[in-house]
Amino acid sequence: MKVYGLIGYPLSHSFSKGFFAEKFAREGIKGCMYDSFPIPEIGELPALLTQYPDLQGLNVTIPYKQTVMSYLDELSPAAAQIGAVNCIHFKDGRKIGYNTDAIGFRRSLEPLLQSHHNKALVLGTGGAAKAVQYVLESLNIPYKLVSRQATADSISYEQLDASMIASHTLIVNTTPLGMYPNVNASPALPYEQLTDKHLLYDLIYNPAVTAFLQQGADRGATIKNGHEMLILQAEASWEIWNNE
């Protein structure tokens, strides 16, 4: 039996376990199982690996995408540059880290991009934002990071004026603001400045239309949630575990 799974904590809302159960059934994949492994501390990872010697691959979610890196033998170039890992392949006794968030984000964003989507605002500065930044750099789309307080690398929400919203027509939310159950929350943007030229992308997928996306849709903007990205990053993980 080939074992795959997800580590993180807590794992009450695991998309991955249901996704892979359906995938195995739908595609007639035999001899494989995918389980959730909630570990309260990343230091429990070595014991988990000892307990499951048949592990072929793991996905990694909050809060371990960065701390897991010190337990790995090797990183893909993208994972090294992003500084976050959400996929581990166990191969020839080595633990190799990848970032399929970047793959999923790029594959779901590219079909929506138009020529005027040539500058971006990235809301949030956490691990998910790093994958988004990596993709924008690879697409040659300059961006500004936005956080609650301005830093050397980011501007604050208060600094977003009409001209900045007008010139930055791609806006990506990487924060948890608006995620279920706090569905009324949204990043503090001047939403009245949005137009039909804007593309709003939210990494959140529950609810399907966050308050952030709804305010864009109300003004004619193109909107996209994180559900397809999640599916694509899971499929990319499966590709890595079985092809690399």
From TrEMBL:
Annotated Gene3D superfamilies: Leucine Dehydrogenase, chain A, domain 1, NAD(P)-binding Rossmann-like Domain
- The chain positions of domain Shikimate dehydrogenase substrate binding N-terminal read 6-88
Q: Which domain of life is it from?
A: Bacteria
> Which pathway is this protein assigned to?
Metabolic intermediate biosynthesis; chorismate biosynthesis; chorismate from D-erythrose 4-phosphate and phosphoenolpyruvate: step 4/7
- Residue runs in coiled coils: none
Q: Which UniProt keywords apply?
A: Amino-acid biosynthesis, Aromatic amino acid biosynthesis, Oxidoreductase
Question: Under which name does UniProt file this protein?
Answer: Shikimate dehydrogenase
Give the originating organism.
Chitinophaga ginsengisoli
